């Protein structure tokens, strides 16, 4: 199986997936990295591991359709089987969803359906809830709404500040996502 990793920013989850593949914890290969953000640090990570990457913001394209066409032809070229979103900050729309049905997954830093959206860790922190966590789910047309594959809970201690909560969430993500990717891919292999 060939994975495309989509990210808009730092890419720490992308790197944890690459590491899991190198260490044999995910039985797949990284076909490529895609980013919509020319300044994203994830591009440096792709270079470091010599992974083919493509950077294209919708603003560089005449239309959203054109942007999606370019992404799809890059994925085609790289013979991608699965799309793994890891901090990708845009909605995946119909043409890509149709081309990769049930083959696109995302990680989200809350216990969905609670706290969807772009700044969930801050929202969770400000809501002063006692428990949060991480969700991995299939991607559909909505924002953080697709069928849930796995969740891991985290109890929030009263003395934690925001950076502590962020650190704890990322620690969970870096363990959980590679594990779930491997499970989902294995299940798919078994069923096909
Ligand atoms: C992660 O918290 C992920 O759950 C969310 O965006 C963040 C990306 O972090 N979707 P990184 O770029 O992988 O470091």
Report on the structure:
It is a single chain. 40% of the residues lie in helices and 21% in strands. The protein is of the alpha/beta class and 192 residues long. The protein has a single domain (2-191), classed as Rossmann fold (3-Layer(aba) Sandwich). The protein has a seven-stranded mixed sheet with strand order 3-2-1-4-5-6-7, with helices on both faces. α1 crosses α6. The protein binds 5-O-phosphono-beta-D-ribofuranosylamine.
Topology:
Layout: E1 2-6, H1 12-22, E2 29-35, H2 42-48, E3 53-55, H3 64-77, E4 82-85, H4 94-99, E5 104-108, H5 120-127, E6 131-138, E7 148-155, H6 162-191
Parallel strand pairs: 1-2, 1-4, 2-3, 4-5
Antiparallel strand pairs: 5-6, 6-7
Helix pairs in contact: 1-6
The protein binds 5-O-phosphono-beta-D-ribofuranosylamine.
Give the DSSP E fraction (strand runs of 2 or more residues): 15-25%
Query: Could you say which overall geometry the principal axes of the C-alpha atoms support?
Result: globular
- Computed over alpha carbons, the radius of gyration is 16 Å
Average pLDDT: 96
CATH class, named: Alpha Beta
| CATH topological fold name | Rossmann fold
User: Can you tell me the CATH architecture?
Assistant: 3-Layer(aba) Sandwich
Please give the order of strands in the largest beta sheet.
Answer: 3-2-1-4-5-6-7
Please tell me the total number of domains.
1
The end-to-end span amounts to 13 Å
Total of helices: 6
Largest sheet entry: 7 strands, mixed
Q: Determine the fraction of residues in helical runs and give it as a percent range.
A: 25-40%
Considering the protein shown, what is the CATH homologous superfamily?
Formyl transferase, N-terminal domain
């Amino acid at each position: 199986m060939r994975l495309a990793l989509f990210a808009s920013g730092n890419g720490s989850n992308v790197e944890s997936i690459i590491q899991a593949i190198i260490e044999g914890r995910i039985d797949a290969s990284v076909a490529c990295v895609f980013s919509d953000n020319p300044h994203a640090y994830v591009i440096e990570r792709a270079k470091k591991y010599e992974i083919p990457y493509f950077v294209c913001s919708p603003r560089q394209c005449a239309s959203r359709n054109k942007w999606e066409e370019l992404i799809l032809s890059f994925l085609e070229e790289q013979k991608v089987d699965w799309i793994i979103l890891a901090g990708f900050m845009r909605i995946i729309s119909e043409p890509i969803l149709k081309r990769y049905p049930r083959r696109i997954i995302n990680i989200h830093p809350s216990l969905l359906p609670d706290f969807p959206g772009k700044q969930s860790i801050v929202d969770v922190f400000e809501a002063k809830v006692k428990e949060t966590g991480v969700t991995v789910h299939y991607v559909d047309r909505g924002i953080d709404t697709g069928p849930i594959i796995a969740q891991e809970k985290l109890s929030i201690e009263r003395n934690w500040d925001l950076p502590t909560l962020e650190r704890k969430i990322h620690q969970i993500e870096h363990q959980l996502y590679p594990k779930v990717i491997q499970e989902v891919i294995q299940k798919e292999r078994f069923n096909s």
